[in-house]
Design goal:
Layout (H helix, E strand, L loop, with lengths): L1 E7 L19 H16 L6 E5 L2 H13 L8 E3 L7 H9 L7 E6 L3 H9 L12 E6 L12 E7 L5
Parallel strand pairs: 1-4, 2-3, 2-4
Antiparallel strand pairs: 1-5, 5-6
């Protein structure tokens, strides 16, 4: 069994409209929500072997907040250019290429791709993956390459406004 935590980046700042979409940082709310959501994930007893993020600033900042909560070295983050505004196909490729020694991974990405992916995986449906939302599922396989064909079981969904 493999466990996947899909995380949409936390709320980004629109304070400076001259900053490119790729370089937008987290807003104050995002800076509060990311550590909170990371802590909630640790309280669930989650174990994460690898943190993989889009290279966009807001996604990396979100991932680093999670890594801090899990007491992981920030240098361990795996950055993927192809995950910036990726569609589900890219997420499948990323997961299918993972080392089978990894049992649990967290992927940090963007809408609309992450919402589309979530709705393909299990019977659980989300209209829109909220910022800093976490969707967790289990892959009934010991091999990541089976991500498309193996049964996937919904574990939980959590988001900053979920109580």
């Amino acid at each position: 069994m493999k466990t996947i935590f899909l995380v949409r980046h936390a709320k980004s700042s629109w304070g400076d409209l001259t900053v490119s979409d790729f370089d937008r940082p987290l807003s104050d709310r995002g800076q509060r929500n990311a550590p909170e959501m990371a802590q909630r994930l640790t309280l669930r007893g989650a174990k994460i072997d690898q943190f993989i993020s889009s290279t966009a600033k807001r996604a990396v900042q979100t991932a680093l907040h999670f890594m801090k909560a899990f007491e992981r070295n920030p240098e361990e983050i795996v950055l993927r250019n192809d995950m910036y505004h990726a569609m589900p196909e890219v997420y499948y490729e990323v997961m299918a290429g993972l080392d089978d020694q990894l049992n649990a991974v967290a992927l940090f990405g963007h809408n609309p791709g992450i919402s589309l992916l979530v709705n393909e995986l299990t019977d659980v449906r989300l209209d829109d993956m909220p910022t800093c939302g976490v969707f967790a599922f289990e892959l009934e396989s010991t091999h990541w390459k089976n991500i498309r064909s193996a049964r996937k079981n919904f574990l939980f969904f959590d988001a900053p406004k979920t109580v």
